[in-house]
Amino acid sequence: MGLVFATSKWADALWSGHCKTSRSARQTLGAGTDKQPEFGEFANDVHTALYLRHEPQRQEHAPAWATGLLDQAHDIAEWHTLRSRCARNGFSAGVAAETLLGALLPLLPAAPKPTPRQRGQDGTPGTGQESGTGEKENPASDDASTVRRALRQALRQAQDAVEQAEASTEAMADAMGLQAGTGPGHAETLHDLEQVRQLWALLRDNPVMRHIAEMAGRLHRLGQAHKRCQVTPAVGRIKGVTIGGDLDRILPAELAGLRSQHRLQRLSTISKIMGKRAMQYELSGTESLTKGPVIVLVDESGSMQGNGKQEWSKAVALALLTLATQQKRTCFLAGFDVSIRHEHLFRPQTMTVDDVCQALTAACSGGTDFNVPLRRALQVLHAEPAMNQADIVIVTDGEATIDDDVLVAIGTAQEKANVHLYGVLIGRGASGKSLKPVATTLYRVQEAPQQDSEKIAPLLAQV
Fold first, then answer.
1. How many Cβ atoms from other residues are within 10 Å of residue 137's Cβ?
2. DSSP labels, 282-330
3. For residue 344, with 0-12 CB atoms within 10 Å meaning exposed, 13-18 middle and 19 or more buried, which class applies?
């Protein structure tokens, strides 16, 4: 239950779950309770106000300091911006409430402490006067501009914290198939929220992994945008008539309204098309949905250290893992130098956060050999039940000779099983000479690969 609002059990359970996985939230609650014993209930108020779309009913006899802070926040534009972002999003509301409460601690008035009872002149017990603390009970009575400035700064800090948390967890959560209840068709559950919160707790304390996750999220978005730009409706036979707004399939009788001499008729036709209420042809066709595993081979030789190449290559691997999870495909990830340093087989709904982090945080050392990882990739393909349309992606900044038997084996897999091999070449040291005979496509990026993220978008759209 809140101090100002009649909060719901569901909202209180969400905030309690956030505090269980966030050490900093528990520390903030402890510091606030030292100043105000009722700070825990006030924390429920802040979280509920951010989470619910409409403000809940207020309770009677709420402390002036609590109502004063909430009322002043309600008058600031940043408060409504933050609320719109956190509404019905248990994860974002928890992050925002934690940050906001931490920033509001200096504005809390200290609770007055009672003095020991003293005896009067007639020997009867005194009334127990409360000693003054020198601090005001209601922040609203302080300088309004000072409180407003502090509130605005706290709200901006909360907004930044939410943006960072969402950006950091997006790629990892998508790669693992986690849902925080914010997507269409996904109901918010305490179990899903707990997993996402644990993921954020791990990333927040691991700056390297957080940087990889943020770059992977950007790569994934670029790939999805590139794919949408290249999509064209498949040609098929006319199945019937339906309602929509696809100009390529709208019936000629509907389009005739655009040539009308009457302005209202033209506007009515445009309104129907823009509102996707026009009659259009319904086409049907066939498309192969069979896709084999995704095999990612990441160069972890000593030359990959420095200039962000190591983190960027792992971000590419995480973006590909995200695609495989969304398409319900098996993903095999291996790091190599002159041998296989580590390998992980990720199947949808079976991977864990620790497994993903372990695969993406291995250090780089040693030389470079392409034969070992490519042979291992072919072994994995033969072990998988569905080998057709498999994709092999090798990320490297070096060059190495490939044996003839490996070239022949890859060529056979490409011809008989429609296997594709893609190379991501970083810097001038990777000429692609050895991969060119068998590579479907080679993608080249500069020495600072973060600046050339757009060049990898076609790869992520094609896999």
1. 15
2. EEE---------EEEEEE-SGGGSSTTHHHHHHHHHHHHHHHHHHTT--
3. middle
| Residue 338 DSSP symbol | S
Phi, psi at 414, each rounded to 5°? -70, -35
Q: Which residue has the tokens 């959560």?
A: 173
**Exposed / middle / buried, residue 85 (Cβ in 10 Å: 0-12, 13-18, 19+):** middle
Q: Find, among 144, 147, 202, 153, the residue nearest to 173 by Cα.
A: 202
% helix, strand, coil for the chain, step of 5: 50, 15, 35
How many residues are recorded in the chain?
463
Q: What architecture does CATH give domain 294-462?
A: 3-Layer(aba) Sandwich (3.40)
β-bridge partners, 299: 336
To the nearest 10 degrees (0 to 180), the angle between helices 144-175 and 90-104 is 150
Task: Give the tens place of pLDDT for each residue, 180-191.
Answer: 544 444 556 777
Rounded to whole angstroms, the Cα distance separating 310 from 298 reads: 9
* 315 vs 304: CA distance, rounded Å: 13
d(CA 147, CA 380): 62
pTM to 2 decimal places:
0.68
Rounded distance between C-alpha atoms, residue 448 and residue 310, angstroms: 11
In the chain, domain spans? 9-110+134-205, 237-284, 294-462
Residue 167 CA from chain centroid, whole number: 5
pLDDT in tens, 24-36: 999 999 999 998 8
Q: Which two tokens stand for residue 50?
A: 């951010």
Q: What is the DSSP letter of 177?
A: T
Rg (alpha carbons) of the chain, rounded to whole number: 30
